[in-house]
Amino acid sequence: MKRQLLSNLPLRRICAVLVAGCAYLWLGALDVQAETVIFADNFDSPLGTNWQIARNQQASDPLKPCMNKNTPAVWTQTNGLLQLIIDSPVCLMDLVPINLDLRGLGLYRLSFHFLIQGSTQMDRSMVFLWQDPQNWYNLKLFGNNLFIEKVVNGMTYQLPGALRQYPFQLNHEYQFTIEFLREQKIRVWVDQQLVLEATDQFPFITPLERQTISLRGGVGAASRSITTVDDIHLTADLSSASVTQLDVQLWKQNDTVWANEEYDHAHLWSSMPTMSRWGCAVTSMAMILRYYGITELPSGIALTPQSLNEWLKEQVDGYFNGNLNWLAISRLTQQVSAKLHTPKLELSRTDGTLAQIVEFAKQEILANKPVILGYPGHFFVADGVDNTTNTLLIKDPYYSYQRLSQRPTLQEVNTIRRFQPSHTDLSYLLVNVSPEVELLITDDQGNQVTVEKVTEYLQDPTGETDQRSPQLAQYFIRQPETGQYTLTLTRPEHGQYQLDVFQYDIQGNVTQSKESGEVGPEGQDVIVEYRKEATLPAPSASPLSSPAPSPTPWLSPSPQLSPQPSPQPQNPNSRRTWLYRHLLAELHQLQRMLQLFQQLQFLQLSSSYQRLLHNLERLNQQTNPSNN
Question: Are 299 and 545 in contact (CB under 8 A)?
């Protein structure tokens, strides 16, 4: 320990080495085996090299920082010691390492020194698990009390055995070691003496973001505190983590509760249109959503594979001929995030060899993010890693396999879907077209846009039939920029095409447009005006669902192919019919806008407009040219 009271530098270094040596010998009593140093700082280097401020605010006014009387409080380094003095209204300041992520570590130990200065009746803290201001574990000293604080989603929880007393003395240095066995035990040693052992209990922090430690300074009832810290070491026994298993709930597509429910509108293409046959993707997705705490749909109904299937069937972008639209899931997570305080999930998809897919999956799982793997016809969840046998642990919605290595179709696995917790950009441009049509997309500068082309289907897993869901070619542009895009369609022989474009803005809200016609080798251009900015306000915390997506007129053929407006007829009756029809079309647009406003609670008076629309529709029937 680098004391200010010790002025002989060589002697100080010798003592430090001896103390460190004795500490590591003593740590044998802490059951420490071959450990790896994950992070260390003796504060001889500039503070900004390894640390950054994560939070600094007063409780009564979050815009104001912690103060040291008339000036903002700051961490200072003196003679190799790090110190923070606060004399302020109630406040907290968290200083976190720049490059430290504890996700994936089931057991680690944090050692450090505190020098008790000024008074023992001051707040002194060390946060040994920090995710964000609403999620952390903290070791706190005040007077002779030593206790563990736990906060999950902004709520404080008491742990058995979390409070002990220790005779701390003024102007004395103490070595602390915190052992954190995730979701099980927390042990604290003071000068190599075990003084506290707490039992961790549910709920636990869901690792949605980087997890680290924090040097915390703060004041409460006592308005002054002095925190002096040195020699931080964080170690972990990496070899002991042979198996990593995330807590993903297993659901089966052939569960009797929903096995015989219709999947999508599968009666249109299957003689056996049930969840038990086709529900692998939606069941896997329900497992992932549940893992991230998404337990309800926007309506408040509990989320299960059955209710998720019904929700997707009601959406304009939920299913495409039996193929689940994963982007609709991002939109769903955006709708419930404000109510459930759960993350929005940003989709990414990667194809590759089996070895590549397994490596991608390991990286995600060790970062506490389960994934969905797939091969032609089937999808399942991977939520664990067995380092001993170098295989993935899986939860399959149909088959009973628990390890990827057990699958006879192992080598066919060729795709992975990852869901990154995000609060930023959920924008996408998705184009659906029949497989025989080729599509080239260019931006408003004429540059070809990089797209991800996907052609997938579902296969009946029972083996009783060779039925498959219809194939569809899908073109994805992830996080496109606002602007005009040209879709150039071609096919080897002349024939009809059907084009569906789904535009997802930065918040994940969707609008749909359709285009159809005839195309051949000479090609056909269709212009898309894409707007990245949010087209609808972010949903409130209300349990009401967000407004249903509606078509918009943003998709049109290129100018030379655009139909010209029809001239107004000269006959009075025909002219009246023409005017009524155009007015009706305009009111249809108005009705869609009113529906959006009404569901967003901006307008509650649309019933009169709907009565007007109904009357005009009846008038339109009366003035139909066939009746004139």
Answer: yes
Among 2.60.40.1120, 2.60.120.560, 3.40.50.720, 2.40.50.360, name the CATH number for the domain at 9-241: 2.60.120.560
In angstroms, the Cα distances linking 600 to 269, 290, 421 are 36, 26, 25
What tokens were used for 285?
Answer: 């997705």
Residues 512, 428 contacting (CB under 8 angstroms): no
The bridge status of strand 212-219 relative to strand 91-97 is: antiparallel
Instruction: Determine the topology of domain 245-430+452-471+503-517+536-549 in CATH.
Output: Cathepsin B; Chain A (3.90.70)
Q: What is the mean pLDDT of residues 6-31?
A: 43
Which amino acid does the sequence have at 353? T
3-state secondary structure of 609: helix
- Tell which residue, 162, 135, 127, 134, has the closest CA to residue 148: 162
Give the whole-angstrom CA distance, residue 558 versus residue 528. 9
Rg of the chain's alpha carbons, rounded to an integer? 31
Q: How far is CA 227 from CA 5, 28, 74, 128, in A?
A: 17, 29, 11, 16
Name the nearest CA neighbour of 81 among 182, 12, 133.
12
Taken as a whole, the chain contains a residue count of: 628
Task: Check: CB of residue 3 under 8 Å from CB of residue 230.
Answer: no
Q: Which residue has the tokens 């955006």?
A: 334
CA distance 605 to 608: 7
Write out pLDDT tens, residues 442-466: 999 999 999 999 988 999 998 888 8
- Residues 381-401: pLDDT tens digits? 999 998 767 789 999 999 999
CA proximity to 578, closest of 527, 540, 625: 625
Asked if residue 217 lies in contact with residue 113, where contact means CB atoms within 8 angstroms, the answer is no
CA 127, 128, 131, 134 torsion: positive or negative?
A: negative
- Give 294: exposed, middle or buried? Use CB within 10 Å, 0-12, 13-18, 19+: buried
Backbone angles phi, psi at 327, to 5 degrees: -70, -30
Contact 67, 87 (CB under 8 A): yes
Please report, as a single letter, which amino acid is at residue 556. Answer: S
- Residue 582 neighbours by CB distance under 10 Å: 13
11 torsion bin: left (phi>0), alpha (psi -120 to 50), beta (else): alpha
